[in-house]
Amino acid sequence: xxxxxxxxxxxxxxxxxxxxxxxxxxxxxxxxxxxxxxxxxxxxxxxxxxxxxxxxxxxxxxxxxxxxxxxxxxxxxxxxxxxxxxxxxxxxxxxxxxxxxxxxxxxxxxxxxxxxxxxxxxxxxxxxxxxxxxxxxxxxxxxxxxxxxxxxxxxxxxxxxxxxxxxxxxxxxxxxxxxxxxxxxxxxxxxxxxxxxxxxxxxxxxxxxxxxxxxxxxxxxxxxxxxxxxxxxxxxxxxxxxxxxxxxxxxxxxxxxxxxxxxxxxxxxxxxxxxxxxxxxxxxxxxxxxxxxxxxxxxxxxxxxxxxxxxxxxxxxxxxxxxxxxxxxxxxxxxxxxxxxxxxxxxxxxxxxxxxxxxxxxxxxxxxxxxxxxxxxxxxxxxxxxxxxxxxxxxxxxxxxxxxxxxxxxxxxxxxxxxxxxxxxxxxxxxxxxxxxxxxxxxxxxxxxxxxx
Length: 453
Prior knowledge:
By secondary structure, this protein is α+β, with helices and mostly antiparallel strands. The chain is built from 15 helices and 5 strands. The longest helix is centred in the N-terminal third of the chain and has 67 residues, at 15-81. It starts with a helix and ends in a 5-residue tail after the last strand.
């Protein structure tokens, strides 16, 4: 062999060496990819844990408000009819169920939740303060009814000389006023304000945690892309596999995350596992959020919008294209007294079902409390008097039908065209006046405050 050939052979690259380096590179890169995959799994797990904590903290805040609203409902029912079961239920919630105290304990997680905890404690303090007024109202009813068997804590409540001198009926009216007046609901609004501020703190905490984890996630995804790029450059044979199993799923996942959508469960098994975990977390989050939103804005008994939902709807309506109808069940107290509150509740459920059947899906039905309901008839730019009259007649006809075993009822209605009200606040006042005008007429009727003939 010539010296020239020997020199070229000695200076050339060895396939064995290249193969060894390719294997080493493949092993190293594969190891790094696997490591990054596990880091991604940990990042998603931390996101899932943060979301679970966020849901629990939100639930805790709502639990306190639900408990406060439950106490309000019990005391209002007790002052309304004097039934001692509501008195017992009130004190069972206050001293045995302890949902408010449990909500405070759930919020006390670590130093990061202290701001939200402080707002929730303020809501608790206002709730406890409100109980003093409720105790006083209950003591008025107890003395008016002559009850002797009641919780000992009410022994410490002393009525003013003026209230002591009231007649039994006057004491009942006084008690009802105490739990229904503006001062009482101003205090309730303070509790809701504190709860909303607590929820805002919880949301802020969760957003910061998500931003931190998402930054980590993006960093890890960037590392994975760089490694994949190196593998593509180093090993051409892996280009297609890497594209199918790695890059494309990751890119799609990032786009889906940015657009707040589930991640397609495609690609490598590891990525499918991550996508499945993320999608499960995403589904649970959406379900929990929808449930909380629904519960917060809908009446539990009838499924109609509650007062909170009514306030939201009222703030967003177009006065020029909306009719507001205020409905009140005639002689509803008599139904409760004669047939019992369970039947009364069934009557309210039936009323909402009838309303939903008569009005359009776009129209909104709200229960303001007791047997008082509001219907927003939206997108009604033209005069709708005859249509509304027909609907009210149909409603009363269906409510009078006793085939379902429920007593016959009727409604009195006040109707105002939104364009006849100066603003949204006066809309309710005018509609309320129209409804009471219907009551004066003998009930089972309706009154238009103003309309264009």
